[in-house]
Design a protein that fits this description.
Radius of gyration: 51 Å
Distance between the termini: 133 Å
Oligomer: single chain
Helix content: over 70%
Strand content: under 5%
Order of helices and strands: HHHHHHHHHHHHHHHHHHHH
Number of helices: 20
Structural class: mainly alpha
Length: 455
C-alpha cells in the first residue's frame, strides 16, 4: 500500500526517494487514517510537528553554531586534505628504505673510528643520560654522611648516637667500596674527599665524647670501637710504639681525654684555690706567725675537695682503661699461650725477637699513674704547709692514704711517694702518726674479716 501511494505522489515530490524508510512508515500510517482525519487533524499535526522541529533547529543553531561553522570549514577542505595525506604517506613510505640504507652506511663508516671527538662526546652524553639516577645517588652520599654525623653530635643520646654513627659508618664503607671499584674516577675521588672531611668531623666528635663528664663503661667501649672503624691509622701506630697491647694510640688518646676532664673538674675549685693562695702568701710573708695553729682553714677545704675529686676520677680513669683495653691485651697473646713450654719460652725470650737498638715505648698506662701522682703531690707540697691545725692535717693525710689504697687496687699504689711530703718537722711527725694509725686500723680490719665464717 505504501509503495502504491509513493508512486502516485512521486510526481508531486521534489526529491523522490523510492527506498526511503521514513516515507514508507508515514504512508503506512496514512493508510490507517480515515478521510475525515486526513482532512482535519493530520494537517494540524503536521504543522505542529514542523513548528516544533523548527524551534529545535533554531535552538541548536544558536547553541552550536561555532561547531557547525568549524565542521563546515573542515568538510570543505576534507576533499583536498585526504588526497594530500595519502600522497605524503606514500612519499614517507618510499623514503624509509633510503633512510635505513643511509643509517646502515653511517654506522658502518664511523663504527671503526676511535678518535672522533664528536662521537666520543655523544657516547658520553648517552651514557650520562642512562646513568643520571645512579650519579645523583652517588653525589648525595657526602651530604647524607654529613647529615648523619651532625645528627649524632646534636643528639648525644645512646640509642640515637648508636643508630646515626652506625649509618655513617655504613655510608663511609660504601664510599670506600666505590673507590676500590673506580679508583681513577674524578667524581668518586671528589666524593671520597668530602666523605673524609665528614669522617674527620666524626672523629673529632668521638674524641670529644671521651671527655664527657660521666663516661660509663658501655659508652667508652662503644666510642673506642667506633674510633677503630673511623680512624684505623690510630691502631696501626702500635707497631711504632706500644708494646703489643693492641691499643695502638687509642689508649693514649683515651687517657689524655680523661685527664683533660680531670683537670677541668679540678679547675672548678679555682675559687677555693684562690683563697688557699692568699693563705700561702700570708704564710710565706710571715704575717700570721703569732698564732701558728689558727691558719689554713680555706686551704683545708680546698685540699679535701681536691683529694676527693682526684680519688674518684683517678680510680674511674684507670678502671675504665683496664676494662676497655684488657680484653685486647689478653687477645694479643693467644699465639704464645697455644705453644708448648719450650716454644713459649723461646717466643718470649729477647733473643727470639729481632735486634732493636731502641727500647720499645711502654704502654700508655705504664706512665700515666706517675703523672697523676705528680699532679697530686705538687698540689699537696704547695698547699699542705698552710694547714696549721694538727687534726685537720692528720685528716688530710689519712684521706691521701685512702686515695693511695684506692688506686693501689688497680696497681697504682703511691703511698711511699707521699713520704716526700714531710718536708717540715711537724708534718713528718704527723705523717708517722697517721701511718701508724692506718696500719693498726688495717690490722684490726683484717682480723675482723678473718673471723667471719665462710658459708
Amino acid at each position: 500500500m505504501a509503495d502504491s501511494l509513493l508512486e502516485l505522489l512521486s510526481p508531486y515530490l521534489e526529491t523522490p526517494q523510492p527506498n526511503d524508510a521514513t516515507a514508507s512508515l508515514y504512508l503506512n500510517r496514512l493508510s490507517t487514517l480515515s478521510l475525515d482525519a486526513l482532512q482535519t487533524t493530520e494537517p494540524q499535526s503536521l504543522a505542529q510537528s514542523s513548528h516544533s522541529t523548527l524551534l529545535s533547529l533554531q535552538a541548536l543553531s544558536n547553541r552550536s553554531h561555532r561547531a557547525f561553522i568549524t565542521s563546515a570549514d573542515h568538510l570543505s577542505t576534507l576533499r583536498s586534505s585526504i588526497p594530500q595525506l595519502a600522497s605524503e604517506a606514500q612519499q614517507l613510505r618510499d623514503a624509509i628504505p633510503k633512510l635505513d640504507e643511509q643509517a646502515v652506511s653511517f654506522s658502518t663508516k664511523y663504527s671503526k673510528i676511535t678518535d672522533n671527538a664528536a662521537l666520543e662526546r655523544r657516547k658520553k652524553a648517552v651514557q650520562l643520560a642512562r646513568n643520571v639516577d645512579r650519579l645523583s645517588d652517588i653525589l648525595e652520599l657526602p651530604s647524607l654522611l654529613s647529615t648523619a654525623v651532625s645528627a649524632a653530635s646534636a643528639n648525644p643520646g645512646v640509642s640515637a648516637a648508636s643508630t646515626t654513627y652506625s649509618s655513617a659508618l655504613d655510608l663511609h664503607a660504601h664510599i670506600k667500596r666505590l673507590q676500590t671499584l673506580y679508583p681513577e674516577s674524578p667524581l668518586i675521588q671528589d666524593v671520597v674527599s668530602q666523605a673524609e672531611d665528614a669522617m674527620k668531623e666524626m672523629t673529632t666528635n668521638l674524641i670529644a665524647g671521651l671527655r664527657s663528664q660521666n663516661l660509663r663503661l658501655a659508652a667508652g667501649v662503644r666510642t673506642v670501637g667506633w674510633l677503630r672503624r673511623v680512624a684505623p691509622d690510630l691502631e696501626s701506630l702500635q707497631s711504632q710504639g706500644a708494646t703489643g697491647t693492641g691499643e695502638g694510640a687509642l689508649g693514649a688518646i683515651f687517657l689524655v681525654c680523661r685527664l683533660a676532664h680531670l683537670v677541668s673538674t679540678l679547675e672548678a675549685l679555682d675559687p677555693l684555690r684562690e683563697l688557699a693562695d692568699q693563705e700561702t702568701q700570708r704564710r710565706t710573708h710571715g704575717k700570721d706567725q703569732s698564732d701558728t695553729w689558727s691558719g689554713g682553714q680555706q686551704t683545708d677545704r680546698y685540699l679535701k675537695r681536691y683529694i676527693e675529686i682526684f680519688r674518684e676520677q683517678s680510680f674511674a680513669i684507670v678502671s675504665l682503661y683496664k676494662n676497655i683495653f684488657s680484653s685486647e691485651q689478653s687477645d694479643s697473646e693467644p699465639a704464645v699461650s697455644g705453644l708448648g713450654p719450650a716454644e713459649a719460652h723461646q717466643a718470649k725470650s729477647p733473643s727470639a725477637r729481632p735486634h732493636d737498638p731502641l727500647q720499645r715505648l711502654p704502654s700508655a698506662l705504664a706512665t700515666f699513674p706517675m703523672h697523676l701522682v705528680r699532679l697530686l703531690t705538687d698540689t699537696m707540697r704547695a698547699y699542705l704547709p698552710n694547714v696549721r691545725d694538727r687534726s685537720s692535717r692528720e685528716s688530710l693525710l689519712t684521706q691521701l692514704l685512702y686515695c693511695a689504697a684506692s688506686l693501689g687496687r688497680l696497681g697504682g699504689d703511691f703511698s711511699m711517694i707521699l713520704t716526700e711530703l714531710s718536708g717540715e718537722e711537724d708534718i713528718s711527725y704527723d705523717w708517722e702518726d697517721v701511718m701508724r694509725k692506718h696500719r693498726a686500723l688495717a690490722g684490726r680490719l683484717e682480723q675482723l674479716t678473718s673471723r667471719v665464717p665462710v658459708h
